[in-house]
Amino acid sequence: NAGVTQTPKFQVLKTGQSMTLQCAQDMNHEYMSWYRQDPGMGLRLIHYSVGAGITDQGEVPNGYNVSRSTTEDFPLRLLSAAPSQTSVYFCASSRGLAGGTDTQYFGPGTRLTVL
Amino acid sequence: LAKTTQPISMDSYEGQEVNITCSHNNIATNDYITWYQQFPSQGPRFIIQGYKTKVTNEVASLFIPADRKSSTLSLPRVSLSDTAVYYCLVGDDSGGYNKLIFGAGTRLAVHP
User: Fold this and answer.
1) Helical segments of chain A, H only
2) Smallest CA–CA separation between A47 and chain B, in Å?
3) Are B5 and B89 a contacting pair, CB within 8 Å?
4) Which residue in the set A41, A44, A99 is minimally distant from B97, CB to CB?
């Protein structure tokens, strides 16, 4: 049981490039989400999904797209990278949809630098 | 949204007990209190959760007074490996995760 995995661990992009951050979980969790964490700050929710085929925006969705074609995978796409998207990105999953009580399991993160 | 307030940072020494208090004055009746721990270069991980009174597990204890407007995470006899950022979150069973807020957390530094 690998939990939540993310690839790549590190990525450097040039402004305007696009890329996809991968996230997968093997716990059969319904809920998955993407957060970004800027230096010295907490996590901010980008997008989330309550099940395959269902996604919604979080607090900071601009510049990012998501889709959820399977229960296991929840990729995050950067459409046209900007320096303001330099951050550490975390994917998380949880069994249920009860935000206040279900435990979220986080991946190890992807450190993204946009030049 | 239930907002939480925590100290920005704390310092302690190995072997001491550390108490981190979180204020959540507008907590709702159905809200639970959850604490996460984040080590450098890692994602947060769940530590403990409670609704009222006291909860204890193998890692920490959580004290919640009767009015539930604050909570205290207690780490017994900390070691260097407890150096991390600790987040306090408040949320209920009905709300989605889009209503949870990870603030800046409390940065705990444990010294030898």
Assistant:
1) none
2) 9
3) no
4) A99
Which residues of chain B neighbour A51 with C-beta distances below 8 Å?
none
Nearest to A74 by CA among A60, A89, A55, A95: A55
How far apart, in whole angstroms, are the C-alpha atoms of residue A59 and residue B6?
21
Q: What are the pLDDT tens digits along chain A (115 aa)?
A: 789 999 999 999 999 999 999 999 999 999 999 999 998 888 899 999 989 999 999 889 999 999 999 999 999 999 999 999 999 999 999 987 666 678 889 999 999 999 9
Residue of chain B with shortest Cα separation from A61: B98
Amino acid at A72: E
Chain A contacts of B41, Cβ < 8 Å?
Answer: 108-109
Which of A48, A92, A99 has its CB closest to that of B91? A99
- C-alpha torsion sign, points B107, A38, B6, B86: negative
Q: Each residue of B31-73: pLDDT tens digit?
A: 889 999 999 889 999 999 999 999 999 999 999 999 999 999 9
B-chain residue closest to A38, CA distance: B104
Distance of CA B108 to the CA centre of its chain: 11
